[in-house]
Design goal:
226 residues, Rossmann fold, 42% helix
């Protein structure tokens, strides 16, 4: 057995939010290459279909749900549909996130604040509660939350402080949930990426007049990434 064989996921199924493009798509393909079947949720049906075809080309099963999981009601409905699939989903990757609002705190409206907190934080809670909760009943599973280096530092020269705030909350939500769930057989971890020049971040750089200030914003670009 090679060391890579120890990372095989044959017989597993993973649910990835925002899995049709960018960081989510790359993770979906990597997990499929490791043997997992994949459930994808994202807003763009065409992007979902393209990524699904790539996963099938790797010999894996794939299910797609066109939904905006930044909307709490849509997120809950999508999770219910995932739980209704035959078999079990033993891995969850809460990937959806984005900035897409370069506005300073003093100019940020309450509605915008709520919208982007739902995008970056609330969906993590809902998916963890519902998909992870089903894992708890089986006593086995893994939850991976895609946080950001921006949850650990304060970026300079870029606004949209909802992003840093939400990602910091994701990190501590992960710690607290891990402490609760590890004794019950479900591991909860967070990844804090730096910059990945995904399609969304490339568009964000163009929108911002170049790649200034992107070096510490994390993997997620604007909500277009989902």
């Amino acid at each position: 057995m090679s060391v890579l064989d120890r990372f095989r996921l044959d017989g597993e199924r993973v649910f990835i939010t925002g899995g049709s493009r960018g960081f989510g798509r790359v993770m979906a393909l990597a997990l499929a290459e490791a043997g997992a079947d994949v459930v994808l949720a994202a807003r763009d049906p065409d992007a979902l279909a393209r990524t699904a075809d790539e996963i099938r080309a790797l010999g894996r099963q794939v299910w797609t749900f066109a939904a905006d999981v930044a909307n709490p009601a849509a997120c809950e409905e999508t999770c219910r549909k995932v739980l209704e699939l035959p078999g079990q989903t033993g891995l969850l990757v809460n990937n959806v996130g984005g900035r897409n609002l370069d506005v300073p705190v003093e100019s940020t409206g309450l509605a915008a604040w709520h919208t982007y907190m739902d995008l970056n934080l609330t969906h993590v809670f809902l998916c963890t509660k519902m998909i992870g909760g089903a894992m708890l009943k089986r006593g086995k599973g893994r939850v991976i939350n895609i946080a950001s280096i921006s949850g650990l530092i304060a970026n300079r020269g870029i606004a949209g402080r909802h992003y840093e705030t939400a990602k910091a909350a994701v990190i501590h939500f992960t710690r607290a949930t891990a402490a609760d769930w590890a004794p019950r057989g479900v591991n909860v971890n967070a990844i804090c990426p730096g910059l990945f020049m995904t399609e969304a971040n490339q568009r964000w750089a163009e929108h911002s007049g170049g790649d200034r200030n992107l070096c510490q914003t994390g993997a997620h670009g604007p909500h277009w990434a989902a």
